[in-house]
Design goal:
Keywords: Heme, Iron, Membrane, Metal-binding, Transmembrane, Transmembrane helix. By secondary structure, this protein is mainly alpha-helical. It has 15 helices and three strands. Strands 1-3-2 form a three-stranded antiparallel beta sheet.
Amino acid sequence: MASIVDLSKPVADILREGTHAAHIRAEHSKGAQWLARGELDKQEYVRFLMMLYHVYNAFERALEQHATHPVLAPTHNPGLFARSASLAADISYLLEVSEASWQSHPLHVAMQAAPPRALSQYVGRIDELAASPDPSRLLAHAYVRYLGDLSGGQFIRRRISKAYGLDDSAGVSFYEFRPLGGTRSASDAAANAGEMKRIKEWYRDGMNAGVGDNEELKAALLDEANIAFEFNTALFDELKASSHESGPSSPVELPSPLHSPVEPSFPSPIVTDVGHDSALLQHLKQSGKSKTVFVADEASKEEPKFSTVSVVAFIVAVSIAHFVLVVGGFTGMKGYAKLEGLQAWLDNYFGTTTQA
């Protein structure tokens, strides 16, 4: 079934709509599911962090190289977003080696000797864009990774901490962000859920400001964002199943590391023909129209069917949950902090009960 992606919309909306199917493919890959459930062997998780380190190191160096580019400058904020140093710190902690020596660890040496094909292609693409006359497409790679880290990455952090027995931020600093306008000093408190939402809104505004009304650029960024999702799916496919896996697990609906970078408010289609040499893009260049659209294939979906009992039970559950949230004071910014504290207490309580 055909749907429409309107290139007159802000680029943040276009990327949300146009990457929906690629995002679904990424989060339902086996590797992403293992990661989301905290089922990877610790060494395999470290190997995944090593791959991410090389990806972030590549595009963060590229973003720094083009920091004053008009498309990239509005969202360039290394003090807030840079992940390379955090990844290095987490890898070192998990391997129990110094940050100066982790790259000579046998696990990393083996990966460098025979780098995964997906990693080589991902980093190669970033290097290609960095060396190109127009590096604007780098924005799509930053969008997919950074906003994914701010969204589903926060769920993954809790799973990783529990799976590997990590306390505080040790070993999971990759998933931490400082408040908008803050520094990365040790005295800064990590951003809570409300602050992370504010950071994402700031990033979307910066993207829209940098891209403006340039529809050809919007189409190119949509193309590149889908490419970035496919690269990340390929990285997940490089992951190996746990050596303790007892059998096949049923797919679960868990936030993935690339959980929707811009929260959708409605089902979103995937554009199928937005390559830089595509006929549609060539038509766009020649049309000169003020409003251009792409025909897209809508993600397949089945009409949901619910029984009356299920609907009534859901309404009752929501009502009770709303009552508890309001009476318990779990609303607003202070409510976020209180809710996070309750969640941590429950994790610790049930973790202790399970071990007893």
